[in-house]
Amino acid sequence: MILKNFFKLHQENTTPSYLIGLSFAMQFNLLIKRFFVFAGIILLPGLVSAQKNIDTLSRAVPDIRSIIDEDFDSDEIDELIMQNWETQQIFAYREVKEIPDSIWLYLVDSVHGFILPHEGKVLNGFGPRGRRFHKGVDIKLNTGDPVKAAFDGVVRIALSGRRGFGKLIVIRHYNGFETYYAHLSKILVKPGEKVKAGDLIGLGGSTGRSRGPHLHFEIRYYDQAIDPEKLICFETGTLKQECVYMTREFLKTRTRLTAKSAPGNTEVGAQESYYTVRRGDTLSKIARKFGTTIGSLARLNNIHPSKKLRVGQIIRVI
Ligand SMILES: [Zn+2]
Which residues fall inside 5 Å of ion ligand 1, going by CB? Predict the structure, then answer.
């Protein structure tokens, strides 16, 4: 089976570049072990430091290898990708209470590639924008320009005029990531349609909350937005990393996910982490929690050290 061959390749090659990632909902316990093997995902217990993660990863690999030879059929894969499948509701994971502790996801393999959704300048990046948080990147285009699927997957959402997104397509990928393509002028796909990276899915536009033609592009995991520029270099149209590590803290608290580079992926810059302010939080409390200082938090967020925080405010901590 072709998928098994990927894993064999993986065993022979220390760079985990050829695997298919696939996510799942934790309640399907019976499938978890096999699913993890298929996905090339390594589940690590709890929240640990980055260094520890690397150590744990190297210890975890033999376990994965020992169960690699199990069989998977495509029905199982379809069943897994279809969990929490919503075609009318943009965010599909609201009901999911249990999510992975921490997870490695592989973005591409030898048959599942990556293509820029649109070749254009990034006009706005991911991050706080005034009182809102911009959860994707804005790519320059002209109305009617082609918009392509970034990765292989299945179209989940193809809807008009939702939540400021305007005409929106959401594709679920085999590693559990979803990509969002917003403000389109035309949608050329339907929910349930399988797409390959590079397939034309729609035409660019300025529908919804938009001040001119651009593609608003997001990458989400369990509905949580990740900075696309952590994974993709929009200038060269290449992936910055083929393997992404995400931790429980961000998945569980429903704050922003961090995408960390795989060991050895040194080209990715300093890591950033964000935290959502809760009742009773002060800058000093948060500084202690993340092992940093009030001054450093103030600088990172461009705020005064004595500024009162708002519950729900998102602040950068690393
Ligand atoms: Zn945008």
Answer: 138, 216
